[in-house]
Automatic annotation (TrEMBL):
Protein name per Swiss-Prot or TrEMBL: Putative phage baseplate assembly protein
Start-end of Low complexity biased regions: 733-753
Domain of life where this protein originates: Bacteria
UniProt-annotated stretches for the region Disordered: 728-753
Species this chain originates from: Aquabacterium commune
Taxonomic classification: Bacteria, Pseudomonadati, Pseudomonadota, Betaproteobacteria, Burkholderiales
InterPro entries (UniProt xref): CHP02243 (IPR011749)
Amino acid sequence: MPLQVPSIDDRRYADLVRDTLARVPVHTPEWTQLSESDPGVTLVELFAFLTESLLYRANRVPEVSRAKFLRLLGVPLAAVTPAQGLCVFSSNRVDGVVPTLAQATEVRAGAIAFRTAGAIDVLPLESRAFVKQRVQLSATDQAYYELLYKTVDPSANTPQLDSYETRELDGSRSVSLSGDTVDGALWIALLATPGTTAAQAAQALAGKTLSLGLVPDVDGQPRTLGTVGQGLVQGEPEALVSYALPKVSTPADGSAPTAQYSALQPARAADVLNGPGIVELPLPARAADIATWDNLDPLEAGVGDFPPALEDSAVAGRIVTWVRVTPSSSAGARMRWAGVNATLIEQRVAVRNELLGTGDGQPDQRYTLARSGVVPESAVVQVIDTAGPSTWTAVDDLLAAGPEVRVAGSQAGLGSRVTDPRPVDAYLIDPEAGTVRFGDGLRGRRPPQGARIIAQYDVCEGRAGNVPAGAIRSGPGLPGGVQVRNPLPTWGGADAEDVASGEKRVSAFVRHRDRLVTADDFAEIARRAPGVDIARVEVLAAYHPDLGLTQPGDAPGVVTLMLVPRHDPVQPDAPLPDRAFIDALCHHLDARRLITTELVLRGPQYLPIWLSVGITVAGGHTVPEVRDAVKARLRAVLAPSRTDGATDLPGLADGWPLGRAVNRLELMAEAARVPGVLRVNGLKLAQGDGSDVPEELPLRGLQLPRLLGLSVELGDAIPINNLLGQGSGDGSGQAHSGARGRVVPVPTVPREC
């Protein structure tokens, strides 16, 4: 029998008035006028109103008890997570001065403030990123270009040409450098600002440090936490990226120039293959070494190892030099955006020198911060007493703090020195509640009487910090002539946990105590990861999705988590976790797993399906109302996660179960359960390519159904081909293959622009 929590008193205003007036004939029979105009009835209504207010407060006693229990357990609510991003600065100063922006420079997207993660020199230049994207030519076009470039390799009877088109990388799409390009490189053109020449720009760049921002597309890469030590991530490319500038020279014999490059050694480089990062590249001290080839023959431009050919002559005329970025061929790098004068930013605002209060020397002193939304690990607390200011240490639990009076043990001799590694000047901060608590003397020092307590911390706006591209446009501390923008949306911001969610995980926290042992531990701890909002998590023990058609239990030592995020702006009906989502979970789970457990984090593999249903509507119901209800019911049944709180779907409380086949008769039964449906005349089920599914579509591994199209019509079900329209749109091309000798990349002119 389930344990129900009844209300202390569920009577309301109308119930109290009715019950009181019902007692009048028994206790005061002489009172016969019970109309609303009677003064006695008015008094009854007044006391019923006051009593209802008291009952409301009494019914909140269980809620208060739960909150007190949470506080006694020391289970804080998850704190707010700041958003992160990348911004680009530009300078239009004409005096030649290179502005330097210090670390923590503030930039704004409206009223939302961000801070830069590092210092940056805003160089007077612009940039455009390009790739040599491989294209497949028709036989006629291939023969034409072979004839045109026959002089490139006179020793070969038929030159081996690798045709490409120059495509710009602007953040709207990603490119696989190893699979989609002819040379595996990313080319960044450094452009002179309008009104300056390339020579003037090269002179201004000489000896400066170029801040190069790179944003890879890593959303599709799975993450595996191996069994050898904490923090090991197996199956990922190594951070091997080379950077080079053109080494321009004119042959003395008048022969054609050759493409040579000088390597650039980064002064500081982030792991740009596994996440957005900044690479600081020191440029040559001589302006003559910052150049590009400007006297190439039209048939030489873009050929071989030369930079890509540009059709826009206005852009080509502003090029100062190129930066070639070449990842390791085994890395499988996909790039989404690249640019210069870039730096990472984080959405936070600093609060400095806030006076929390004055110490009173009592145990368990508690103080409240003035601002909410405190960024975890950003707080610094100082206590200023007669001995001067001292910075105290933040601890996870005051039980880990030492006593303020050190006492030698019984085995220590008189006058012996006591060494206790536990911090004494310690405090405990709850970022979500914004409270700072000190010890009781036995576990942590008490702030003495009259001591001033000063706090410094950062606050953020949580999910509101996830702003779109181009939202960051200003900064109160930017020098004159310096502009800022964010080329990509910011990411990672999450609001603090609410009380209802915190109450739900109290029992789970008490049960597993923050260690990954049982399947419930994996699910609950994953849901508590900061910075992610999980709608569904499935734990598959002893299962590895890369081992083929295996079942849970076939791979001992491996645990696979299938994760469905609550929000996905790219495909809301079939959410997939992005790289920031997976990284946050990896960081949270790695320190809590057993050392012998290999942990695999994946999103679902969606199997597209089409549905067509024919129904007969019962009398008393409108056709549009019933049609919409049937569509909503089928979408809820096939949804990957349950976010609407539906409770009338037996066995589907968390979404469509893993490994459960999509059965045509089962879907007909679900449609028949909708009020107003007299009969289901038929249901057609098809796969993503339109092929018919007679009875059921089996699902294996991490597969879940994704409804591409749904039709509910009065009468018979319409054919699936009517839903498909002009076809599935299969645009797969053939990979470039064939025997090769020397391969020469050559530019081609697109037929359409």
